[in-house]
Specification:
- With 285 residues, this protein is an alpha/beta fold.
- It has a single domain (3-284), classed as Alpha-Beta Barrel (TIM Barrel).
- The chain has ten helices and 13 strands.
- The protein has helices at 31-44, 62-65, 72-82, 100-113, 128-134, 141-155, 193-202, 213-220, 245-257, 272-284; strands at 8-10, 16-17, 48-51, 68-69, 87-90, 93-94, 118-123, 163-164, 169-170, 186-190, 205-208, 230-234, 262-265.
- Helix 3 (72-82) runs parallel beside helix 4.
- The longest helix is centred in the middle third of the chain and has 15 residues, at 141-155.
- The chain is globular, with a radius of gyration of 18 Å.
- The model has no long low-confidence stretch (mean pLDDT 96).
Length: 285
């Protein structure tokens, strides 16, 4: 199976640092370093880059989730001005932390700034301490998230949105600017079968995390996947396209064979220059 750079996305370094995955150079890296990566991925034809959302994490989560999460709205606003084609995907925005019209206004503005390159990756969240911190309801986050997805579809590309649902209702309000994409892609993240059901029913794609390729394929087989539905699966393990090109190709092929329409890649790297060289080598495979 051939690999196209258009099918690949990058799990952006620096913006999020995970224990055992991130490299030491990322600790003191700057927004200019991130922009250099984004510009390179843009030039090489990668489909999207990512930025995740957390407001504040319990110190006890440091060893499992890490603690660095750059804010996606501020970060993507800057990267939008430094790139031209690559899409900007929140991976993920936590629905319960925001009113749907707040998302529609802020990220609709970002879609306009980026000339229609936003992908809104969302999830219902799982960190109760963070919900409690901001006073957001936790126990009903699933049905509340489903209602938020319906409200977002009604609101994202409409300057005068109207919606009436179980948790959110609005009308007679103007949201200007709104998204420039007539149908802004919404992908659902998560690590459960419920997240896939939510994605197939209410969104345009599924971007799971901590789900094995075998499990993802088995779950995908339970649904009638609609045409154009995106499945974003990570290549298993860190890729070293400079040192092990055949293995990198094999791992990407493996993700595609398990149902991915887009493959998220995490590169092994020891410096910014090493990362950039890896991006180039992977695109040339």
């Amino acid at each position: 199976m051939s690999i196209s750079a258009a099918k690949l996305s990058i799990s952006t370094p620096v913006l999020t640092m995970f224990p055992g995955v991130s490299a030491d150079w990322e600790i003191d890296a700057t927004i200019e370093d991130v922009a250099t990566i984004a510009e390179s991925a843009d030039r090489l034809g990668y489909h999207h880059l990512t930025c995740s959302e957390h407001i504040a994490l319990p110190a006890g989560e440091r060893g499992r989730r890490g603690t660095r999460y750059w804010d996606p709205l501020a970060t993507f606003g800057y990267l939008a001005a430094r790139t031209h084609r690559i899409r900007l995907a929140t991976n993920v925005l936590v629905l319960g932390y925001h009113h749907p019209l707040e998302i529609a206004k802020r990220y609709g503005t970002l879609d306009r700034i980026s000339n229609g390159r936003l992908v809104l990756g969302v999830g219902v969240g799982s960190l109760k301490e963070e919900f409690d911190l901001i006073g957001a309801p936790f126990e009903d986050r699933g049905p509340r998230g489903d209602d938020a997805l319906r409200a977002l579809r009604a609101a994202l590309s409409s300057p005068e949105p109207a919606y009436r649902g179980e948790f959110y209702s609005f009308g007679g309000m103007v949201v200007d600017p709104s998204a420039v994409q007539e149908h802004l892609p919404i992908w659902v993240g998560g690590r459960t079968l419920r997240s896939l059901r939510r994605a197939v029913t209410l969104a345009d794609g599924w971007a799971p995390f901590s789900v094995s390729l075998e499990q993802a394929r088995e779950w995908l087989g339970r649904f009638d996947i609609p045409p154009g539905f995106e499945v974003i699966l990570g290549a298993p393990g860190r890729l070293a396209p400079l040192e092990e090109p055949d293995r990198a190709r094999h791992l990407i092929d493996e993700a595609l064979e398990h149902g991915a329409t887009r493959v998220g890649v995490t590169l092994a790297h020891t410096s910014l220059q090493h990362y950039l060289e890896g991006l180039q080598a992977l695109a040339e495979l």
